[in-house]
Amino acid sequence: MTCTPWSVHNHYHKTFFGKDCLTHTSFITVMKSAMAFFLFFSIVLLVYFSANYYVFWRGWQAIPPGSGWRPLFGMVFWFLASTYIAGRILERAYISTFSDVLIWTGSFWLGALLYLFLLVLFFDLLRLVNHYVPFFPGFVTGNATKVRLIAFAGSVVLVTLALTAGYINARHPVVRQFDVGIEKKHNGKHTSIRAVLLSDIHLGTLIGNGHLRRITERVMMLEPDIVFLAGDILDEDLEPVIRQNSGKVLGKLQAPLGVYGVMGNHEHIGGSADAFRYLEEHGIQMIRDSVVMVDQSFWLVGRDDRDKRRFSGRDRKSLESLMATTDKRYPVILLDHQPFDLDKAAALGVDLQLSGHTHHGQLWPLNYITQAIYTISHGPGNINGMHVYVSNGVGTWGPPVRTGNRPEIVLLNIRFGQ
Questions:
Q1: Whole-model pTM?
Q2: CATH of 174-416, one of 3.40.225.10, 3.40.30.10, 3.60.21.10, 3.90.180.10
Q3: Position 139 confidence tier, pLDDT thresholds 50, 70, 90
């Protein structure tokens, strides 16, 4: 494609979006997306600050007036509240041990904020109900200051225990098996295959080589015929991955029929071109809006992430165009990071769709939100005859904690012809 003046004079677009040039239409689309992202980010910051202030104010009120603990509480609280944002900004400029400490601290604070917010809200609702229908016992109403302090201290202890348990849980994925029968012809080479599905590893500052090594060793113990990576292999910024040389560990994922992956939204956030190149260089066969016949036995369709347009100004290929290049007499397996439009994939002749993205909420009770958004938030399902498995992921995003579910490695026993 010939570069237009828009890309020649605008170095920002080349470096941020990882392309050599943009058309005028793409430039306008990208700018609109950038404005939408800025608006979204502003709303997120407003919500984040408001939630922090609400928890802070209730904590401040719980500490008796005049106590020397109040100033210390204020300094510690707002330091913790600022660490994640500060760490991410610093990481963009210069990665260091200090930026890692800020990001780790801030990531745990994100989880702590969620549960402190819910607990404070719960206590305020109790107070509201008690205002109209008094039910608090006398020792509560008679010692309000002391009770508030005990409730706040107890909430901090409870949240700390929950995050500790959630962190341990997040580092110990479980292996789940799913049997799939596809009534399609095969050439006799593979009447069945053992496939491992991994999604949402989120390699980066929080998911490093130690945890990745445990994941790869666990996968290789399953002796898979093929490995599928359903997106968000990387966690936005590629620099921490390069610094740790995580690609070397990731390259230990091997299988006779290959290791295939698709792009997730986080690969696009961090720069899709660099992410694609890095993963390909380390043994992952990335399928970007293309179709592969695997060992003359089945079709593998890989879609680029649906958020591609937001970050590049270009649409991904339609599923209709990709399916038109397959011979539907053979089994068709679709890798698509985000599990939307499942009924459409079923109508087009897909036999098995594998997705991730949802994390199934990751932190309770956020799983109720993902269940409301997605037809299948986690696990196996069947949509008009099409098998589906949506993995809740093997890694974490944001807080390195899972309190709503177990991280998982999925072993798929796929049988053809039955």
A1: 0.87
A2: 3.60.21.10
A3: confident
